[in-house]
Amino acid sequence: MGLFDKGVRKTKESFFSKLSRAIVGKSRVDDDVLDAIEEALVSSDMGVDTTLKIIDSLEERVERDKYMSFEELVGMLREEIGALMDIQEEKKLADFSSMPSKPYVIMVVGVNGVGKTTTIGKLASKFKAQGKKVILGAADTFRAAAVEQLEIWAERAGVDIVRQSMGADPASVAYDSVSAAVARDADVVIIDTAGRLHNRIDLMNELTKIRNVMRKVIPDAPHEVMLVLDASTGQNAFQQAKEFSRATDVNSLAVTKLDGTAKGGVVIGIVDQFQVPIRFLGVGEGIDDLKPFDKKEFVESLFTIDDLKK
C-alpha cells in the first residue's frame, strides 16, 4: 500500500471514473479524450493554469503517437504531473533529522479551521519521538480555545509550552518563546500564530512584526514559515496561499484533510503556481497521519494502475 493511498483515494476515484468513461471503446486519443482529461483535472481543483500546462504537453506528445493504451496515457499523465512538482527537489527543505540551526524556528500560519494547531501538535510529537527538545509558542492570543488546544497537544507530546494571558501581544509571546528555546538549549521551537482571514491586512501585517521581534533573539529566525492549507477548500486554498505569500516569506506547506476530499489536485496546482515545496500531507485524524511529503510516492499513489483496472 502506497504512503498516500488513503489520502488520495477520493480524488483518484473521481478523476479516473471520468477518464475511464471518456476513453472506453476508443483506440486513439482524440479531442474528446483530451477534453475529458481537462475536465477531470479541473474538477480535482488542480487549477486552470496548471491544467492547461498539462493539456498542452499532452497534445504535443499525442501528436507523435495518437494510438496508445490506457496505461500509456496514465503513464504520460504521471510524468507530466511529476515534472510540474520538480520544485520539491529544487527547493529542498531542511532535513529535520539534523537541524541546520539550533534552535530551529518554525512559524506556522494559516486561517482558522485548516488544522493548524493540530498540525503543530502532531509535528511536536514527531520531534519528541526523534529525541528532540521542543518548545511550543502560543502566539494565538485572540482565542482561548487555540491556547487550550495547544496546551493539550503540548501535554500529550510531552513538550514545553510558552504562553501569556489572553489578549497579550502575539509578538511578545513569540519573543519569549525563542528566548526560552535559547535558554533551555531546545532543538526546535514552533510558533502558533492567530488563525487570520487572509484578506485582513492588519492581521497579515502582524506576521511581519512577529518575525522581526524573533530576530532580536535569533537574527535569521524564523528558519521556516509553514503555511497550513485545507485541501477540501479547493480554490480557496489558492487564494490563501497567494495572500500569505505576499504577507510573509512562506517557504513550506502542510496540506491537511486530503483524505476527506476529491479535490486533491489542489496539492499539485499550489506547488506549480506558487513554487513552494510541501513539507507534510495530512491524510487522516491519527497522530501518525501527518506524512512527510514525497513527490514520487504521491504521484505513484495517485496513478496506481492496478487500482484503475478495478
What's this model, at a glance?
51% of the residues lie in helices and 13% in strands.
Structural summary, described in words:
The chain is of the alpha/beta class. It has 13 helices and eight strands. It has an eight-stranded mixed beta sheet, with helices on both faces. Strand 6, helix 11 and strand 7 form a beta-alpha-beta unit. The longest helix has 19 residues. It is elongated and about 65 Å long. 44% of the residues are buried. The mean pLDDT is 84.
What percentage of amino acids are in beta strands?
5-15%
- What sequence of helices (H) and strands (E) makes up the elements? HHHHHEHEHEHEHEHEHEEHH
In terms of quaternary structure, what is this? Answer: single chain
Low-confidence stretches: none
Q: How many strand elements? A: 8
- What does the average pLDDT come to? 84
